[in-house]
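pasting for ref
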Amino acid sequence: MARRLIVGRLRVIVPLLVLVAVVVLFVVLTPIYTDLLFYRSVNFSKVFTTVLWTRVLLFVLFGVVMAVVIGTNLVLAYRLRPPLRPLSVEQQNLERYRTALEPYLLAVLFGVTALFGLAAGLSASGRWRTWLQWVNGQKFGVSDPQFHRDVSYYAFTYPFQRFLLGFLLSAVVLSLVVTTITHYLFGGIRIQSPRHGDVRIETERVSPAAKAHLSVLLGLLALLKAWAYYLDRFGLVFSSRGVVSTGAGYTDVHAVLPAKLILLFISLACAGLFIYNIFQRGWTLPLLGAGILVLSAVVIGGIYPAIVQQLQVKPNEASRESPYIARNIAATRDAYGISSVMPQNYPVATQLSATAVQNDVGTVSNVRLLDPNKLSKTFKQLQQFKGYYGFPDTLDIDRYTVGSTTQDYVVSVRELDQSGLAPTQKNWINEHLTYTHGKGFVAAPANKVEGGKPDFEVGNLPQLGPFDITENQVYFGEMSPNYSIVGTKQQEIDGPGAAQGSTTTTSYTGDGGVSIGSWFNRAVFAARFGEKNILFSSDITPQSRILYERNPRDRVAKVAPWLTLDGDPYPAVVNGRITWILDGYTTSDGYPYSERNALGQVTADAVTGQNRVKQGTNDVNYIRNSVKATVDAYDGTVTLYAFDESDPVLRTWMRAFPGTVKPAKDIPAELRAHFRYPEDLFKAQRDVLADYHVTDPAAFYSQEDFWDVSPAPDDQNTDQPPFYVYSQLPGHKTPSFNLTSPLISRRSSKLAAYVAVSSDPNDYGKFTVLRLPQGVTISGPSQMQNQIETNSEAASKLTLWRGGLSNTTIQTIEGNLLTLPVAGGLVYIEPYYVQARGSAGYPTLQGVAVAFGDKIALEDSLEQALDVVFGPGAGKPAAAAGSGTGAAGADTSGTQPPGGSASPSPSLTPAPGETLSPDLLAAIGAAQAANKAGQQALAKNPPDWSAFGAAQSDLAKALASISALSGSSTPSPSATPAPSAAPYGTASPSATAVPPTTASPTTGPSG
């Protein structure tokens, strides 16, 4: 009866257990299978299989070795147990455990070995990069100056040797622990001696067999320690003991290196003593050897080098360390790709004539007035059109040639932003089947404004502009949702139609993503995304495809896990298609004598984190921009191009993943024309150049001429980011697209140098470092920002633009403070934007500040500011380029774009057919009068600050009245009289206002 009951229960339990096992296995394997489908969809399955089988190989190899080593020592310890154990209280207590374990010895053996093997295998599988680099390592062709080994040994072989040493040490130490426990449990090691009555019987506390076993393990441990000392010798090329942060110094070479060799031989002698101890009684010899080893490590390895450092090196440090400083300088400059970069003296002019500035057309006509880090809201308000479209928090800079003119543009992509959907629209069908993609490329010349706003040459829907865009749908972008299913029975929203209020639809015809037509694929993706609708939706057809891993950076990181990617992908129009371009770095921390830097630290600046991915905290001392990657915005195609085929790290990875990287000759010319010098690489290099532009060891030791990256003018706790500018560098005949950064003196914070690197295809990567004379004092960016803000005339204008001291409806936004070489001098130029507070406000250009030496001007346009600082006519190139138009009277709220859904904002001009009440007109007149009185007070010499304060008080009261009479909760920002293009000190004649109106963004497919 009982047997039948057990059998009956088993018939129920076993199928349930099988079902649970199948479900668990399905859930565990789902991410792996869907990843495989992704790799197949982008034709990079070789990467998936190589990484997978390498991890499996390491898991099995090192897991089995660890399990066999531990298991072998456990079995040996058990078999070497003494047949008879003297009776004692200790042994009587242990007998109970032995009796309990005896029936389960085999299970315990397999359990312990499996546990240690699993842990070792999992740890080893994570070192697949180390393994692949060791197996496929390519020569650098450069030898280290101390041991004369090729750099590839330190970059590829040495890390694997340290890993292997650590694994073997762990295996021996763990074996020693489990062996000691086993011998103790089964009587091979006894702590207490047996007693006969009150008499203690002296016997061997460690049996001969246990002693031999432990001696062999200790001997192996000593041999591994000898190997560790041998490897430590080569590790000295990464020492931080000397003057420089990385590399063997005088003490390392003359004290530590011999000490390591002596300790190596002492370790070998100790290993011999442990083995010899097998044939001796007691533990005198091994304890003596271990004591000698520890004492030698302290005296020879620690105290002796410290004495050499203090008594020989410190008193003569400059001369003693000079050869090793030279090694560090040469290695660091080579490892960071700046070995050929040398500063050139720039006899900066302190006086410039208007004619000289006017003649520098290449720079003055291309001054960037649009700050891509500040104008995201402007692009959104003027080019959004639908609430479900959006732009990233930071825009991008690229250059295009239209006709015969090449210039830089602020560019972005109108991406899908599902946060703009109304709550009633947010359901699974809308979010994953209907609203699936963005639409359109937007570009505005960086040096032009119209009415204070960008002059969009490319934008609008339908797509307009000179870039010949043939495919502008964006299914893969930085703001794309987690997944979308396309090719379904649902039509996809494709933006506004030609008729007012209409909406166009489309259906995806590309081959991006993965087919989801089969029930099995639907089931695995339903499990991956935790969404049952994927499995049961009747809208999904056999032709449907699921798009996932849609962020361009994520896609490239997945197909090239060996790359370090730049934090800022940028879009470009290449052959009529929107293409994301990403820079890939090959890095290493194994370049001997090269300075190590935390990549995340040296690449962090004031804009990191806004829309840029911050780099990790890993240390690097070698970096190359060896790969350019592209992602097609429509079908997600990922392409990797070898950009620096001489890079040995790249060649190593190309050997590990053959066929995944295309050669440089396959890069299309139209794509190459949009390659930018990457920001994160430049930031790492400028940080190194701040010190390593000094190549003389004696000067390097004194640190007298070291530079620093300037703090951001608006955030002193972060570095100022580098800027892409289209300008004409000194000594160049034509303007070029450069990534630039000023550097300041580490001692005085004055401007010390100007660094620029070209992105033009003909001289890509060519550095220009202008070193300023030390006898000339030019304020650094943060100092100049303070001087602009405290300049009396500039401060008065800023106060007016902000609507008075009591007005809280308008904010002034400082744009990028550019440092530009102009006509042999260095000029600071900074755009100023104004923005109404609130969701509808967006920045518009209100004025431009120009600073040269002690001369500062903040005017409505760049042309005017240049004329004020340098004299009439200096700003003529800026006016010709269009950068001097439209700042005056710029709308500071949200203007309705054509066909858009943004809320109309208050204007200074009455709408057609609209009349204003007498009270409102009187309030507007009072505001104008107060504004004029304030300007007249400031125009006096010296300014009448008392009258200015009274005028500002009157202005605040008038604005409050306008707000109350127009029905707005706060004074309308555009009711504040804006300075016009007329000479400063005259009132703007166009300051009229209308009651503000509001309009809610349209929701649903039409809006």
